[in-house]
Structures are given as structure tokens and as C-alpha cells.
Task: inverse folding
């Protein structure tokens, strides 16, 4: 991808209602949306699923998000509230901001982007639906954006990869390649170390996540940082770093898709 544009227009910190990331047209119900390319580029003809984890309204809707679903191996709740920094900046907001930067970056490189939600004030969708949206649109690659609530002494990012369960068998191999491309791009582009407590060298296979258990497209999760760690909390609440993280993710996805 070309050099990242200067983030100088973006303030250093963001509030819960920050609107500095690129605007996304909000669907009537804040649900999924599909967005055409804004320019031609190396991702012409590609479709990318961008899944911002959780949702801003989840905490107020326990009866909806605590409903049990089948994740391909076992029961799991429809969704969760996600974590937050010690000062209360929510993971749902961080994920949403990174997703908006990432969507703009990918569209400018020629990709069509499918988002699993188009606001941060709704509830869900359930993790099963988040997987189904990527499958139904036959996206060429997918990424679920998250940040972790780990031990305060630990920091860094981790890529969560699928483990074969029958449904996802065909995408375990390609997802490992996507994960390796993302790990390389994120370590360099976001300047974030691999997690000191989750996975090995930034890679952690997971059997308990519907989003990758039920996926039939190459897909991984990225835990961008540890929101409970002071150094990482300073990053996740910075618009400049959110944009940087998104650009790094876009670069990793671009590397993966150019190989295919
Ligand atoms: Zn999360």
C-alpha cells in the first residue's frame, strides 16, 4: 500500500462520542453494511469483512446478548459487553473507531468492505450472525477487531486463529497465512509488541469463538492491545494510534490478498 497519510488532522485523544474517524453511513438499525471502493488500487475486486467486536448498546441489553447460541463446538453467549480501560474507555468504541479507519483505508485501495455493524449504539449482532455475514458475502478475507482485558502487567497484541472443527476446515490454512501477514504488519506498522501473556509470538489458536469456528472465509481476530495495561491504554485511547493500528491491519490484509 502507499505510505500512510499523515494523521495530523486527528486529535491526540478521543472521547466516547468522538467523531474524528471517517464517517460511515449508518443503516436504519445500525446493522450490517456493504461499502463500495472509493478508488482503484491493489485490492480491486476484493471483498473484506470488517467485524468491530461487541457494540456500544450491549451493556444495556443483557437479555439479548446473554442468550445462548451454538458456536460450532459448544454453547456461547450471543455477544458480550467487551472490556474497557481503567478510566472507562470502552472496547466497543475502540473497535468501532479502528473499523472506521480500516474501512476507509481498504476502500481507498480498491476493496469492497462489509461491516457487521454500522453504529456503536446498537446491540450485537450475535457472534453467529457476524460469522454468517462474512460467509454469505463470500468475503476474500475477514478480521474481527478487538482489544483485550488482560493482566495489567502484560501488554501487546495477539492474533486469534481458527482450529479445525469440520465447518471451518478449509479456511484454517489460509487463516494462518492471513494471521502471519497481520502479525508482521501490525508489529511493524502499529509499533506494538506481541502479547507478553497471550499466545506465542503474537499467535493464539482458539477453539471457543463462533466468529472463527463457523467461518468459511479466511478470518482471524486481532486483540490489538491490552486495555488494562497503562501503556496500552494510552495507545487505545489515542485517535492517532487507532488510525495507525487500522493502517497496519489494512497493510496485512493487502499483503495476504495480493498473494492470492
Ligand atoms: Zn473483545
Result:
Amino acid at each position: 500500500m502507499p505510505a500512510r497519510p499523515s494523521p495530523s488532522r486527528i486529535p491526540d485523544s478521543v472521547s466516547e462520542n468522538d467523531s474524528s474517524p471517517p464517517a460511515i453511513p449508518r443503516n436504519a438499525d445500525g446493522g450490517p453494511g456493504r461499502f463500495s471502493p472509493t478508488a482503484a488500487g491493489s485490492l480491486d475486486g476484493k471483498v473484506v469483512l470488517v467485524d468491530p467486536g461487541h457494540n456500544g448498546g450491549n451493556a444495556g441489553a443483557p437479555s439479548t446478548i446473554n442468550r445462548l447460541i451454538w458456536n460450532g463446538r459448544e454453547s456461547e453467549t450471543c455477544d458480550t459487553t467487551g472490556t474497557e480501560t481503567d478510566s472507562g474507555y470502552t472496547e466497543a468504541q475502540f473497535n468501532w473507531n479502528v473499523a472506521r479507519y480500516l474501512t476507509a483505508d481498504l476502500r481507498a485501495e480498491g476493496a469492497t468492505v462489509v461491516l457487521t455493524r454500522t453504529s456503536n449504539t446498537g446491540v450485537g449482532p450475535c457472534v453467529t450472525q457476524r460469522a454468517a455475514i462474512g460467509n454469505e458475502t463470500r468475503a476474500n478475507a475477514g478480521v474481527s477487531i478487538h482489544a483485550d482485558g488482560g493482566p495489567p502487567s502484560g501488554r501487546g497484541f495477539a492474533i486469534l486463529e481458527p482450529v479445525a472443527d469440520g465447518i471451518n476446515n478449509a479456511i484454517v490454512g489460509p487463516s494462518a497465512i492471513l494471521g502471519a501477514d497481520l502479525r508482521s504488519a501490525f508489529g511493524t506498522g502499529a509499533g506494538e509488541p506481541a502479547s507478553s501473556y497471550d499466545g506465542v509470538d503474537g499467535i493464539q489458536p482458539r477453539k471457543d469463538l463462533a466468529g472463527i469456528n463457523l467461518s468459511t472465509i479466511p478470518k482471524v481476530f486481532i486483540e490489538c492491545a491490552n486495555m488494562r495495561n497503562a501503556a496500552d491504554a494510552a495507545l487505545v485511547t489515542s485517535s492517532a494510534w487507532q488510525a495507525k493500528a487500522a493502517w497496519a491491519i489494512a497493510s496485512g490484509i493487502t499483503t495476504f490478498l495480493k498473494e492470492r
Residues 53-54, 82, 91, 146 surround zinc ion (CB under 6 Å). The radius of gyration is 16 Å.
